[in-house]
Amino acid sequence: MAVGRVVMVVILAVLVGCSGTVQAFLFTDPTGLYSTQIGDRWVYQAHQSTSELMVFYGAGDFELLYFERLGPVGYATALEFAQRSIELYGGPGGLEQFELVRDFAAVEVAGVQGISCAYAYQDGYGNRLWEYRIFLVLPTGEGFSIAFSDHSPEVAEGPPPLEDILRHWRWLL
Amino acid sequence: MKMRRSGSGIWLVLILLVVLGAGAPSSAAGLADRFERSLGAAAAPALIKEYGGEYVLPIQQRLWVEEVFARLAAESERDDLDYSLTVLNSREANAFSLPGGFVFITKGLLDLIGSDEAQLAAVLGHEIGHVEKKHGVNAVLRQMGLTVLAEVSVVALDFLSADLLRMAGLTLVQLLQAGFGREAEFEADVLGQELAVRAGFDPTGAIRLLDALAQLSDEPMHIFRTHPDPGQRRARLEERLALFWSAPAPVTDDKALERLTRCRNSHQDGRTDPKGRYVLEMPGQVAAGVKLFDQQTGESVLWAENALVAQAAWSPPGDYLALLVEERGGSEVWIVDRWGHVVSKLQDPRGAVTSFSWSPHGDLLALLVQGPQGARLVVAYLQAQALAEVGRGWEVQDALWLDDALYFLHAGTWYKTEPPQVIPVRITEPVPVVLQRRRVLTPTLIREGNTFRLTRPELTPP
């Protein structure tokens, strides 16, 4: 019995010790489309996530990361997808004080060509937010989007946390 | 105000009557279309102004509304029209249409509809129905003393200045608010329901919307003031539900017949809780209430203890339990939720329900109803609380669902019938959502001497 307790204490100590050194965790999309490695400062938000939308809050007050599956889309290219989205974000009924701060650029996410851009807007509380977004049309014809937003204009330059996430990105098709 | 309006109407009649008569009948059809479009376009600004101006919906909602509208417009019979939809910035729950394909819906009605695409299709289908049947333009012509649209000649149109058209438009807006008349509204209901089904929407959308509107307080119910009695509209729409089912066809395929026999003899239908918690104890005879063993608590529970239960079955998704309850002078079906609460009771005026069968999605129940003319097959739409007699006039011995089709036994032969196909809305060119972090509730711990007090969480900025 005493040996059992000792073993338990050792296991707990190892676990506690390890938890301080863990830097990232492997996140696998529950629908089986993709996986990536996400830093442990990012917390999955179950209340805002659905099977198509995965949401994470960062350590900063405004840091937000989310991936969205849009199902089959009628866009032939990621550029069309990006153009239409930006047109609607900046149009009537779109985002308040919308401004495209970084123009469309080609990007590759684990072998899939996409389009990235960054824009700024004002949220419902009057905060100015910057969002970096990647638009993808997967070989299956499905639309996909990766977005990172924060209360800082530096987001437009390609946020470092996202670079790490994209480096570990794998499609599970 | 009233004097000025009627005065302008008479003016219009007089001027039109003067300029009519020298027309070219050969171009009457094209002319009529032109007149319709001009009239609708002339009336639109006044209608938009009266209802608080145009409201721009948020992107995702706009795409969804536009997709529903596009599917309906694609099924309309008049290819000479370009349908357009405008959302009006009014809390009143209402919708309108103007000749030429101009359709309007208020923000208030969209709020009421929420994300129910069948209800939205019902409203928009109804308004497209008015346009298809030319209710608006005919009402204006009637008001002006004319009976046939073609009577408006080229000359008349040429003479119609923008001001006159605007006056005609105002007349139309007044007519619109008074309604196009009882029969026109019924006709638009029917056409709207047909359009909705052709476009792949649930035909009970209009019924559910009428029920939702009936539950509103009196203030925003303008749509009722200008329309016939909602009870009558509901009854007519319910009566037509059976028409959308496919014509019963005899089953000749051996494999299908074998499956039917196997399912019919299995006696397992609905006894097992699909969510795995309860074990249904069926004594095989009529009993007081329905007894279930709760595997979570390890105890037996008795639901609907005051009812004489002859049959019980879980819906395939496991959300509801249906009970066949014997009542004095008949029988009815009770729908019970997973907490044992009776959420609805289904009764058929045609007779007593003798058995039932769940559809695979748990949204429909096939009922065998014993009436004076023998047993009939009735399908109950649970969400809409509506009944439809499928295979009208046929005497039915048995019925069961296989896949998404309903099979019934008539005169020793199995027949198959299918409900209309419902296709969920899929936006062809969607755009990603733009999220923001939600505010966080943070409780505050305050020290007061030797004690601590936890204050009510306050909203803090993200």
Give a description of the structure:
- The complex is a heterodimer of chains A (173) and B (462).
- In chain A, 23% of the residues lie in helices and 42% in strands.
- Chain A has three helices and ten strands, in the order αβββββαββββαβ.
- In chain A, the strands form two sheets. In chain A, strands 3-4-5-9-8-7-6 form a seven-stranded antiparallel β-sheet, with helices on both faces. Chain A has a three-stranded antiparallel β-sheet with strand order 1-2-10.
- In chain A, a hairpin with an 8-residue loop joins β3 (43-44) and β4 (53-57).
- The longest helix of chain A has 18 residues, at 2-19.
- By secondary structure, chain B is of the alpha+beta class.
- Helix content of chain B is 36%, strand content 27%.
- Chain B is built from 13 helices and 19 strands.
Q: Would you tell me the structural class of the helices and strands of chain A?
A: alpha+beta
| Largest β sheet strand count, sense and barrel closure of chain B | 6 strands, antiparallel
Task: Using the alpha-carbon principal axes, give the shape of chain A.
Answer: globular
- Mean pLDDT across every amino acid position of chain B: 83
Q: What percent of the residues of chain A sit in helical stretches (DSSP H or I)? A: 10-25%
Strand content of chain B: 25-35%
**Structure classification of chain B:** alpha+beta
Q: Which two protein chains have the largest interface (Cβ within 8 Å of the partner's Cβ), and how many residues from each?
A: A-B, 38 and 19 residues
| Percent range of helical residues of chain B | 25-40%
The low-confidence runs of chain A, each spanning 5 or more residues with pLDDT under 50, are 12-22
Described by the principal axes of the CA atoms, the overall outline of chain B is globular
Cα-atom radius of gyration of chain B: 28 Å
Taking the sheet with the most strands of chain A, its summary is: 7 strands, antiparallel
Number of strands of chain B: 19
Distance between the termini of chain A: 49 Å
Residues in β-strands, percent of chain A? 35-45%
Report, as a whole number of angstroms, the end-to-end distance of chain B: 53 Å
Reading the helices and strands of chain A in chain order gives HEEEEEHEEEEHE
Count of beta strands of chain A: 10
Number of helices of chain A: 3
